[in-house]
Predict the 3D structure of the following.
Amino acid sequence: MAGSHDYDYVEAGTVDVKDLPPLDPTTNKIMKDEFTTGFGLTVLYFIFIFSIPVMNWFAPAFAFKKIWGGMTVTWFVTTVVMMAMAFVIAFVHTTLYEKRLKKYEMTNK
Amino acid sequence: MIEALVEPKMMLTIALMGTIVYITYLTKRNTTASDFFVGGRSFGWFTNGSAIGGDYLSAATFLGIAGLTFQLGYDGAYYAFCFSIGLTLLAIFVAGPLRRFGAFTVADFLAYRFHSKRARLAAVLVVLAISGFYAAPQLLGAAQILSMFFGTSYEFGIIFTCIVMIFYVGIGGMKGTTINQALELWIRLGAFIVMLIAAMYGGLHYDKILTAIHSFSGPITGTSPYALDGSDINFDGAAWTGTGFYFPTFWQTISMTIGLALGTIGLPHILLRFYTNPSAKAARKSALMAIGIASAFFLLAVYLGVVGRAIFISGSASEEVMRDLVLGGNNMVIPTTALALGGDWLLGLVIAGAFAAIFSNLSGLFITSSGALAHDLYATFMKKDITQKQRVIAGKVAIVILGVLYGALGLLVKDASIGHLVALAFTVAASTFTPIFILGIWWRGMTEKGAIAGLIIGLGVSMWMIFLPGTLPSFLQFKIPGIVTVPVGFLSVIIVSLLDRKVPADVNDFMKRVHSKESETV
């Protein structure tokens, strides 16, 4: 059965968080790299996301200015640009992740 | 009778049902718990990506987003945008680690993270709460669609849909559910693409119709026979393309954005789908594909809402179309626009798509909740020496119990707002599982007590703010209270964990499992 994990309730006990041994260097580096990339992309994404309501409420003259036919700046950004942005951010994240994965594999070899 | 059967809407709906039955029959062999609950972890990125899209894009999305755009204009489009954000965050922070972990249910994650039955129990409670509040409006939508297009009663619609779900999920398990969900996604997307082509062929280009709507102000001809006061309905195009219709303040808008954006990460039926991939790489690709599909879907939904509004204000549509747009409510916009653009066959395709949306989403909720009942409750607390076969049988019995339970919920919410109940599910998910999964995957300092406190406090506060807003001061009354409940969820976990400090002794092993490259294919 591919990928099954038959876990049991093994009593692992608890330790005070200050007595926790450090993570092994490889896992620590992987987590750090992955989190840094993900966090950076998320911050960028959320700047784009929250810039829309900020623009709509605090700069309505610009936000509701027509740029193409009846399409305003905010309509275009909300319904076209940001839909594409969701995919772009996820694509960049996946691509960077795959690259790092290859790098780790090369290092291990 | 025969005339009714040869109507396109009837023929296409019967064809959809027949396909579901056939796929369910083909996938009925579920010999192990892995087969039944996670489809043997055999689905590649294309099938699973389509199924995630099918799970995510519910009837509320298929019919509701275009309806909201039709009614609210820009605010409806913004609503669609907020729904589109969450999958990206899920792909970034959760998809890969969750697959590397590779269990059966959402509650498994907490149970194994802390070796704790209490944590599992708290997670089951939240899974059932979210799924219940998500399933009830889907059943409400199903009953309304059956009533609108086939003239059946509300009660019949609920019972019929529950019976279909019991058969579909109970027999097919996760295998049948996944294949059906993938197929149903493409039926919906196909319907939208055909509508796009028909609209473009009819000269309804985006910029052109937005210009026409924006510059329109006054009564809409052809609406008076159906209006309550007998006079033509007034419409202000400039206000429709502006903001402030639905969310009257900046902070209400931000609160909705937070609730909807972070809710997706915590939706149990979406999280569960990442267990069905054969590897973490396939899970990431599935998420990416689902995001692409969802983005295209939301973009098309908004455009079709605009097309519906353009047809409506032109006043040149048939009497039937004008009547349905006035009387049918927002959820009728997609079917009515389909009728105006392509006649009965396109309407039939849209109706089949609407059923596909309901079945697809409900099946995801049924399989997730059955895992919570059979795997997390029954097999863990009641019958510990359970065999694989008994586990599958327990899953099937759970589906029947859920059919009755969700059916009863569906009957209770007859007069509720679909959008509000779905928003409730998103808000509860954003305030409970989202903090747990993000912190559980990335922070070693999260403790069992912290996790349980986060789930219980997040659930309680979101329920309070949604159901009893009148008991709160006005500045805390939000339509979607994500701005308060999500920070409360995160802070509860963090504060209680910092006070408790007792982390599992093997937390490093857990982190290695969910993050290390060796676990890419497990």
Summary: Residues 1-6 of chain A have pLDDT under 50 and may be disordered. Chain A has three helices and three strands. Chain A touches chain B through 65 residues (CB under 8 Å).
